[in-house]
Amino acid sequence: MHTVKAIYPGTFDPLTNGHLDLIARGAKIVDELVVAILRNSEKGTPLFTVPEREEMITEAVAGFANVTVMTFDGLLVDFARRQGAKAVLRGIRAISDYEYEFQMAMMNRKLDPELETLFMMPAEKYTYVSSRLIKGVFQLGGDVTALVPSLVVERLKAKVPARVGG
Question: Which residues are catalytic, by number?
């Protein structure tokens, strides 16, 4: 039997409803989906540790029988090869995402011509949502409850003293 395993990589700092939307839709397309948390990111100092992010995502995807959560560092193509994955799932919110994701997909193809990239757009209501925006809005006292899972809201409250007003 031929099964398709895909990797959905990211920093997920924190997990958003946009991420969950892509996970849910990706899980319908592939037989196995690995949500892969990048341990060493170039995105600066993370708000949540890798174990905290792994715990939050694992809890959030518990209802999906074909979704697992792992961590990795190094090249995505090497991780995908070790996992026996045939595809990488990536979300695209805007043209600016596409330019970056296109470059990454082409480099991954160069490094491993057998690894395909699947681009998906999030549901319209999440097209503007990013982890960076979530952190910024929350730190300034804004309400992010419609944009992240409730377990993330609780972790944000425990981690970040929210400021109200300016």
Answer: 19, 43, 93, 131
